[in-house]
Amino acid sequence: MVTEVSLKNDPLSFKLTQEQEDIQAMVREIAQKEFAPKAAEIDQKHRFPRENWDLLAASDLCGLPFPEKYGGVGLDHVCYAITVEELAKACATTSVMYSAHVSLTATPIYLWGTEEQKQKFLAPMCRGEKMGAFCLSEPGSGSDSAAARCRVERKGDQFILTGVKNWITNGIEADIYLVFAQSDPALKHKGLVALLVEKGSPGFTFGKLEDKLGIRGSSTCQTIFEETPVPVANMLGQVGDGFKVAMSTLDGGRIGIASQAVGIAQGAWDHAFHYAKERIAFGKPINEFQAIQFMLAEMATEIDTARLLTWHASVAHDRGDRFTKEAAMAKLHAAEVAMRSTVKCVQIFGGYGYVTDYPAERYMRDAKITEIYEGTSEIQRIVIASNLLKG
Question: Which of 33, 127, 195, 296 is at a distance of 20 to 30 A from 341, taking alpha carbons?
Fold first, then answer.
């Protein structure tokens, strides 16, 4: 199987730069040596792997796509996609912890923040001293972000924030939270505000950790704000810019989730491939049976198409092009490929695929969320169609 095909700055060159190859090799070594051996234990115990975060920080990966002046490394988004994929191949929990920090919290600060905000919030995030979380969904509004019930009221040089956010990745573990709230319900999406809220702020507490189907080591919970004061200086953009901040953030976030989905699918393929060589049935390895060969071939083909779509969106991002459609296509396809590939992986393992002694069932459980967060597959189809119809 060709797993190393990539692209340079030209999406038609299908060749990694030396820099991209170096990042791939480095992250792969870290992920396979340090993260993969613990992935099952993390999943079974629902344990947040803080030591994995510390190693990512020590490896200068937490600020990978951001300028060196803010403590970043200044690499491109293809390098970022490669990094998320390699993490997801080893441990999906670690990949989503990392992706939520980079794509969903640090990136909007970089794109929308003032210089003061970048120095205060982005720089320690790039160094891995602070972890980020993205707070958009609510108990009564997921895909319909304009229906947010979390409210803000300005009082002098502060906003008073009240409401609940749902499904927050890095929830209890994060330090900096990007929270979207409504300043005026009559304005709908035009009234949304994006605020940076620090852990420990008065009235800021957490709900219970969610008991999830997959990515079970990630800290996912409600964030609860009860008249929490937030400095006006912590607002990204202006009042009413929140919707634009959220939508532009989700474009980049979808590249992260597409990369995660590719990594999960590739990890499942790797396990299925090696198992099929070792499992003997009817006197020979099962990879000699055409039924198994066809499943591996279909998985490999779909994984490569998902990877190339993801890198195509990453290149558009780096060029400064609008990449909403490309990111949605990558996320839609990669997520559905992850589900199909992991189901085939379980099938190839047979009965062993159904028990926790082997990794197949974990990959299948981890894959499902990629069809849901950062916009469901149905939302991706709406985004793609609307962009196509615009011409």
Answer: 33
* Cβ neighbours for 269, distance < 8 A, ≥ 6 positions apart: 1, 296, 299, 300, 303, 341, 345
212 and 122 in a common domain: no
Which helix H or strand E contains 158, and what residues bound it? strand 158-169
Which residues form the domain of 79? 18-131
- Regarding whether 298 and 188 lie in a shared domain, the answer is no
| The domain boundary residue, chosen from 190, 207, 240 | 240
Q: In order along the chain (391 residues), what is the average pLDDT of each group of 10 residues?
A: 42 77 98 98 98 98 98 97 98 98 98 98 98 95 81 97 97 98 93 97 97 97 98 97 96 97 98 98 98 98 97 95 97 98 98 98 98 96 96 69
CATH code where residue 58 lies: 1.10.540.10
Whether 13 is covered by a domain: the verdict is: no
Torsion of Cα atoms, 289 then 293 then 296 then 300, to 10°: 170
Query: Does the annotation count 227 as an active-site position?
Result: no
- Long-range CB contacts (within 8 A, 24+) of 377-381: 377/332, 377/335, 377/336, 379/143, 380/254, 380/328, 380/329, 380/331, 380/332, 381/332
Residue 144 is predicted with a pLDDT of: 77
256 shares a domain with 231? no
The CATH number covering residue 278 comes to 1.20.140.10
CB within 8 Å of 306: residues ≥ 6 apart: 258, 261, 262, 265, 330, 333, 334, 337, 338
At residue 13, the pLDDT reads 57
Give yes or no: residues 196 and 264 share one domain.
no
pTM of the predicted model, to two decimals?
0.95
